[in-house]
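Repro:
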Amino acid sequence: MPSTILIVEDEFIVASEIEEIVAEMGHEPIGIAADQKTALSLAPHAEIALVDLNLRDGPTGKDIGKILAQTHGVTVVFLTANPAQLGNGVPGTVGVLSKPVTEADLREVIDYAVARRQAAEVPPPRRLKLFNWANAPMVG
């Protein structure tokens, strides 16, 4: 079953490439958000969000991920070149994939996030660093 996926990324070319992969996988990219205001306006329509940390309005990705996960029940995976900015992670979110990412990495992470939403027991992708609380299945 296709999922609705929000892409929170301020680099247009990167965001467009992610959007294309999401669509090729049969999911519905519901939008690209380059800042917190746009991301939160799209939140009610998202099941999964791929969130960069440093956006047009500064390092707001961590807060966006927290709000998406805790307020809207979105399955959040961070994609960033700066995973250390997340410290031990953000409660309610799944984990972080360090940039640069390959298309194969992205496909694996999307498949994993979809499976997690469906409460399936699946092993995480090799490059995805799970946060400690992410080991329990997320029901969405």
